[in-house]
Each structure stands twice: as C-alpha cells, then as structure tokens.
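Homework help board

Subject: predicted structure for assignment chain

Our instructor gave us this sequence and asked us to write out the predicted structure in token form, then describe one feature. I got the tokens but I'm not sure how to describe them. Can anyone check?
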Amino acid sequence: MSSLEIRGLRIPSAHLNDKNKIRYAEVVSLRYSFDTNRQRGLVFQLDSGPTGFESFYVDDFLKRIQSAYDFAWCACAGTHNRWDELWIPASEMRRALKDYI
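My token output:
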C-alpha cells in the first residue's frame, strides 16, 4: 500500500437492501489526494471512490470530529444496484490526515 492509499470497507450495490449486507463487505485499497480550493482551503479527495466525487474540505471535517477520537467516514452511502456503499475506518482517516489532526 503506497503512502497515498487507505483501506476502506465496500459493500456492493447489489446487496444494499439485504439486512445482512455486511456479510458481502470487502476490504479495498483506495487512492486519495489533496487539492486546494482558493475559497475553502485544502480538499481531501478519494481518487478511486464509487462515484468519483467522494471528498471533503479538511478544515470542515476536522471541526466535526474534534470531540470524538474514533470516527468513520461514510464516503458513499450507496444506491441499490448503482453505487457501492463505502466506509473509511477511523484508523485509516487518522493516518491520511496525520499532518492535520
């Protein structure tokens, strides 16, 4: 795994309506990058997420998680038969954002 990869838990879209969907989950490696928005600052973006638009402003994200040590990012809530559900565990998010936390 390269320094700009994190692991996530992906549930295929075909199984999102299954009440036991977690049994279909698989661990995946995901590339990510940082970009700068002139008005809002640093942006974290998954380069290999389900939709291609999984991203957030780092400052906004850090404000929301300051009170909680453990958190997971729901990068994509998923849509049945269209977009996979994707969760990034707290440990992976901390590793990716280590220079900002």
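Reply (TA_rk): Your tokens look well-formed. For the description, you could write something like this. Residues 8 and 48 are 11 Å apart (CA to CA). That's the kind of observation they're looking for.
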